[in-house]
Amino acid sequence: MKFILTLVLFLSFYGSNAQKSTASKQISTFTIEAPQQKTSRKIWVYLPKNYSNSTKKYPVIYMHDGQNLFDVTTSYLGEWNVDETLDSINAQVIIIGIEHGGDKRIDELTPFKNEKYNGGNADNYLNFIVSTLKPHIDKSYRTKTNANNTALFGSSLGGLVSFYGALKYPKVFGKVGCFSPSFWFNRKEINELMKNTVTFKTKIYFMCGENEGDDDVIRDLNAIEYLVNTKRCECKMLNKKVIVKGGQHNEKLWREGFKKAYLWLF
Question: How far apart are CA 205 and CA 212, in angstroms?
Fold first, then answer.
């Protein structure tokens, strides 16, 4: 129920197998200390094809579950093909993929504790991104640092924490790719937080499939979209909602939706 089987299987899987790496030449990785979480994190970096021959600065998308974004050998049920997709359209953006914490994934991607599944340490995870990772990225690469050029993308619990990140750090994250968000995990708290938010200027691409397991994903997404629209004029066209016919809660859905989300947001 509620995709928990998928989540549990996903927790500690790092995809070691005999397949050949599919990561493009624009991909590199490094490890950085995350004092807010008392651990270190592996970070994946995608740079545009013309990065080394340019002096321009680029917007940045921070994405969760980094091991699922670029390489089939590290993914769980298939990668997102983010690098191939961006290469195919000559996208002018830097992607920062943050590997999830294995059996700590539920804990770090959920804002509040769930009565059944615990969790609730997203504040530390987001603080790591904002206070440690982003400064390092802005120092190491040519980035556009303002909120309008800084986005959070994620699916499932990653969609939940991306939306929460925009609420908590509106001056840092100006755009969000919110795929199949697991709002059910903290439904009451997120709705209350949204109701108590005075203004909400973040540009958001909501997306989910019509066959994600039950009706909660679409129902919760519609409820959040309604609350978002009460905080700003719909005429500003700051959010888009896509319900994919036949779409299921998996990498295939998110892989196929990534390009459209990127193009609409940027």
Answer: 18
